[in-house]
Design goal:
With 145 residues, this protein is mainly beta. Helix content is 0%, strand content 74%.
Length: 145
């Protein structure tokens, strides 16, 4: 069992967000902690303030629920999956869902290769003309010190 304070800032003009600030407390619980399987869940509250690319802005309280799973194939390769649900308490139809799937493999003692697929869904985006779902596929070379 653990507690946290989460603070965040982001800007994503393609998703209609000029700036988003969020801050809030939460708690988590590690359900599985093993050699191959790890699973944890978190729940918390965030105060979020958003400024949109169309000039509107909004401030609201949201609930945050997160699940994270990690499977270790071998000491050098692991798969990770996270799913986050953010519930807007002021406007329940404006919820968000974010998922990230990743595969990381160690190439050398210093370098790893990470491949991720990320999906961000806004049920009612602002402005309304935007797509509800954004996806990203990325490949990164990670340097470990």
């Amino acid at each position: 069992l653990y507690c946290y304070i989460l603070g965040g800032w982001m800007q994503d003009e393609f998703a209609g967000i000029d700036k988003r600030f969020s801050l809030g407390p939460g708690a988590g619980y590690r359900i599985l902690k093993g050699d191959r399987h790890n699973l944890s869940v978190e729940a918390g509250l965030n105060h979020t303030r958003e400024a949109y690319t169309n000039g509107d802005d909004n401030s609201f309280l949201e609930g945050r629920f997160l699940g994270e799973y990690e499977f270790t194939f071998n000491p050098k390769t692991k798969f990770t999956q996270s799913a986050e649900y953010l519930h807007n308490f002021d406007e329940a139809d404006k919820f968000r869902v974010n998922t990230v799937s990743g595969l990381t493999t160690q190439l050398t003692d210093m370098f790893s290769l990470k491949v991720t697929y990320e999906m961000n869904h806004q049920n009612e985006p602002t402005p309304e003309t935007l797509e509800q779902t954004d996806t990203r596929f990325s490949v990164a070379l990670v340097v470990n010190f």
